[in-house]
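Input record (one chain):
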Amino acid sequence: MKNKPIVAGNWKMNKTIEEGVSFVGEIQNRILDKVDAKVIFCPPFTLLLSIVESLSASSFGVGAQNVHDESQGAFTGEVSVDMLKSTGITYVILGHSERRHLFGESNDWINQKIHAVVNGGLVPIFCIGETLENRKSGLTGVVLKQQIELGLKNLNNIDPKKFVIAYEPVWAIGTGETASETQVAEAHLGVKSNLKHLFGSIGLEIPVLYGGSVKEGSAEALIQTEGVDGFLIGGASLKVESFCNIIETVAKYY
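The corresponding structure, as predicted from the sequence alone:
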């Protein structure tokens, strides 16, 4: 693996400020930044500033779970790229299936958000993935290609050091179901092929993470799967022991 693998934890709507600060402190004490993996915490908006401050002397990254594409305006409950930048974060999760399916975010809107984040100097973690119905209908490749092409539309240049893609099959998120190594390899190969088609050989340098009920027991096999450059983790990122074990497992294969 050429670049350090990435292990990002999406906390979703979990943890108070006190819980979050204590949590990252425990992880920092355990792995001491010496592990060969890029670790990113993505807490709720209310925790961002506190987590950034807690990790200011470390190499850990911090990201938000969403952002609006407009710079300001009458958008009650939303935050802008500049607001996020002012907290000191680096990453923003975009296009997560829960945003797509629960909150109606379209490919076009996600594309606008990606442009806002890239233009604002932050790093998108762009999520793509098929539903169970898509997979059963043999449409996985078609859906992923469409999400990539529409999500990255009018993005003429891409810096692989400042862009991350996460393949998360919708049917494996929060269900306890994990895609097989063969399914993951096929999907990641297709994603990388699409990126190469759009951006040339540099597209192959964009890290592609796997997400979808990643656990301690599945991490070792998945990180060795062709095309997997790390993980975007949900439930297992909320527990110190499981998250640290996954980080240490991933780092072994760098």
